[in-house]
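Researcher: Good morning. I'm working through a list of sequences from a screen, and I'd like to move beyond sequence-only analysis. For each chain I'm collecting a predicted structure so we can compare shapes side by side. This is the next one on the list. No need for commentary yet; just the structure.
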Amino acid sequence: MKALVYGGPGDKSWSDIPDPTIAGPRDAIVRVDAVTICGTDLHILGGDVPEVPAGHVLGHEAVGTVVAVGDGVGNLKEGDRVLASCISACGVCRYCREGAYGQCLGGGGWVLGHTVDGVQAEYARIPFADLSTYHLPEQVSDEAAVLLADILPTSYEVGVLNGQVSPGDTVAVVGTGPIGLAAIQTAKLYSPTHIVAVDKAQSRLDAAKRFGADLTVLADDDPLEAVRSVTGGLGADVVIEAVGTPATFELCTTLVRAGGRIANIGVHGSPATLHLERLWIRNVTITTGLVDTRTTPTLLRMLVAGQLDTADMVTHRFALDQIVEAYDVFSRPAETGALKVVLTRR
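Model: Good morning. Structure tokens for this chain:
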């Protein structure tokens, strides 16, 4: 089969590799029908995730059709259409018992495209398939469903829920790529008074408006003044970091009010300065986290009910064998206007 193979920092290729096989009783093999590219994949290619070895298949967001299951899989059968979650869960370790699947001790967590071969391929092996896939209703398209594999649960859990967004809050979202846009959309579920979006690219701020931000500001202008203008000079109740650079994290610490909360979603490849000398006295709470995907069933129900709309998130569509071109487009959003790219089997 063909797959997107990581050759080391800056190196990727659409290459022939052996078909995946059942390696354990709880595995399933899926034919990949739709897949997308994540900002984390770009971090891997940039060398920010050194534990990913050369030769691995990238990707952790897919919709597929089950073609084989191990003897220990009880709720899947050949022909089932499923969402493959970015997080795998053994279901029996301490963390899985607590719903913290991202920290699984039994061989799960974020493994696809990280420590085992991922899903940017014609076929993929899904470990712990009984707990790491979701049956898809007929009315949910592959394109809509694939956005539930990572970005929506990540933004919702690590951004909105960790940040404890509440009615009446002012929420600032720094970075309005796909993760930031999903954070804006799911923050709106909690009726904040204001959502302020900050980004370097006007095209992404325009998208933030469509997704529900009521105030947008370019990062090179004065985000702090924009936030203060709608909060009586206090600052934001919740600031969501959705980029993963030292500059954006440090910006978040200036935008938050005393007693406020910073929810860091971004994947950081470099150290960021934590100005405790200024933050400690202001009662600021900072949270970080890897998604657990415990909210995926809820988000799927909301998608079916029309309470979430992912249609505007996808800006570019490709055939699966055009994935190298898709990476190029996705990696240059300021020039291409790319938000999410979706690749499908044709």
